[in-house]
Amino acid sequence: MRYQRPKGTADILPGDSEQWQYIEKTARDLFANYRYQEIRTPMFENFDVFSRTSGETSDIVTKEMYDFHDKGDRHITLRPEGTAGVVRAFVENKLYGPDTQKPVKLYYMGPMFRYERPQSGRLREFHQIGVEAFGSESPELDVEVIAMAVNLLKKLGINDLRIAINTLGDKETRAAYRKALIDYLEPHFDELSDDSKERLHKNPLRVLDSKDPDDQLIVDGAPSILDYLTDDAQKHFDKVTGLLDDLGIKYSVDYTMVRGLDYYNHTIFEIMTNSKALGEGYTTVCAGGRYDGLVNELGGPEVSGVGFGLGVERLLLLMNAEKIEFPAENALDAYVVGISDDASLEALKVVQALRAQGFTADKDYLDRKPKAQFKSANKLNAKFTLTIGDKELENHSIHMKNMADGNEISVDIDDVKNDFKDLVNKSF
Ligand code: ATP
Ligand code: MG
Fold first, then answer.
1. For ligand 1, what atom is nearest to the CA of residue 116?
2. How many whole angstroms from 325 Cα to the centroid of ligand 2?
C-alpha cells in the first residue's frame, strides 16, 4: 500500500519551508509597524458562519466548501477564507468594547480549504495571510490597508504589479445598480451560462464575476456601477482614489470587478500579476475591500471593517518565477569532531554549550570515522571545525580551525563552552 497526499494538497519540505518562514516573518514585522496584532481562530467553524457571510450564490458556498456533519451532528465547514471567522471571533469576544482602541487592527496567517480543480496556484488546501481593521469608516483606512499590501509585496521584492480598484457603493447604490443590471441582462438570458441564469435574479452582481467566456462577452456591455453611486458612495470613492494618488500608489479603476464574496461594499481591490508562472493573463495574488455590514450580519453592532487576503502559494510561485533571492538559511557556526568515544561525549557537551550561547552547532551521530566527520564539516559549510582527540581530552583543550582562512589554534575547552564569541574575536 502506498500512501499519497490528498489531491490539491502539498507537502512543504525543508528548503521550501525556509521561504515560507521568510514570507511570514516579513509580514509579521511589517504588520507590527502598522500596529496590527495577530489573531488565531479555529480552522473549522459552524457552516452558517460562511453561508451567511460569503453569500448563498457565491462559488465558495455553492461549490467549494468542505462541509460535513460531525459525530454530534453539527454542520461544520473547514474555513474557505479568513474574514468570516475573524468577524465571528470579533463579535463573540466583544473586541468592539469600550476598552479597545479603535480601529481594532488584526492579522492572521494559515491554511484555508476550498474544493476546487487543482492547478498551478490553485489548491484545495492553500494558505492566506490576511488583515482586518474594524471600527473606522474613514477612507484613510481603506488606503492604509491597500498601502500595507503593496508595501508587503515590495518588501518581498515584487514591484511589477497591477492594482485594480472599484467601489460597490452603499446599500442604496447597490439596489439601484442591481435593477439596472437585471434590466440589461434579462434580454441576454438565453445566452447566459447555467450558473449565471440561476444568479440573474438572486444576485446579478455575481454574473459580473463569471469566469465563463460567453458570459464575459455579455458582461462587457453591462452598465457601470460608477454611474449609480450615491453622493456618499461617490465621496468615499473619490477620497480613496485621491489618497492613493497622494501616496503615489498607481492603480486602475475596473468597474466590472465585484469580488467573489458577497459581503463587500464601498472599496474593493485586487493586486494582480501577469507572470506566466501563474498562467495566462492576469492572476490575483491579493484581494480585499470594505465590509461595513458584516459584523452586524454575524450578530454584532454596526461596526465597519476593511481587509485583504493574500495567497501565499501564488506569492511564492511569483517570487520564484521572478528569481527573487531569499536570504541564506541558517548557516552552521561550528561542527565539532570527536575522535574517540570519550571525545564524542565531550563533543556533545561542547555543541550543547555553543547552542546555549546562541550559535548553530552540530556533530556526528552515526559513529563515523574522523575523516567522514571532517567531510561533513566541509559539506555543511561550517565556519569553524572544532576537534577533540585523546590529547585534547587529557589537557582540557580543543583544536579549532577557521574554515575561511585555514588558521588553526588550540584553546582551552572552557573558553569555547563559556564565551565562544569572545574567543573568536580575540583569536581570529
Ligand atoms: P480566484 O478568482 O482566483 O478564484 P478568489 O476571488 O476566489 O480567487 P479570494 O477569495 O479573494 O480569491 O482569496 C484571496 C486570495 O487567496 C486570492 O487572490 C489567491 O491569491 C488566494 N487563493 C484563493 N483561492 C485559492 C486556491 N484555491 N489556491 C491557492 N490560492 C488561492
Ligand atoms: Mg475562487
1. 27
2. 29
- The b-or-e profile of 395-407 (16+ CB within 10 A means b, else e) is eebbbbbebeeee
- Which pLDDT does position 281 carry in this prediction? 87
Q: Which residues, listed in sequence order, are joined to residue 400 by a DSSP beta bridge?
A: 386, 409
- 126 within ligand 1 shell (Cβ under 6 A): yes
Cα separation, 41 vs 44, in Å, equals: 9
Q: Are residues 117 and 252 in the same domain?
A: yes
Per-residue pLDDT tens digits for 238-271: 999 999 999 999 999 999 898 867 788 999 999 9
Alpha-carbon distances, residue 302 vs 65, 84, 93 (angstroms): 28, 15, 15
For residue 188, tell me if it sits in a domain: no
Task: Write out pLDDT tens, residues 147-203.
Answer: 999 999 999 999 889 999 999 999 999 999 999 999 999 999 999 999 999 999 988
Q: Is 125 a pocket residue for ligand 1 (Cβ < 6 Å)?
A: no
128 lines ligand 1 (CB under 6 A): yes
Count up the domains in the chain and report the number: 2
Domain residues for the domain of 162 are: 17-170+230-321
Ligand 1 centroid to 270 CA: how many Å?
11
> Does residue 132 have a known ligand-binding role?
yes
Q: Could you tell me if 54 and 126 lie in one domain?
A: yes
Q: Which ligand 1 atom sits closest to the C-alpha of 283?
A: 3
Q: For residue 379, is it within any domain? A: yes
Distance CA 199, CA 89 (A): 30
Give the length of the chain. Answer: 428
User: Residues 99, 33: one domain?
Assistant: yes
CATH (domain of 316) = 3.30.930.10
Furthest-apart CA atoms within the chain: distance in Å: 96
> Per residue in 52-99, pLDDT tens?
888 887 888 889 999 999 999 999 999 999 999 999 999 999 999 998
Assess whether the C-beta atom of 157 lies below 6 angstroms from ligand 1.
no
Tell if the pTM clears 0.90, that is, is over it.
yes
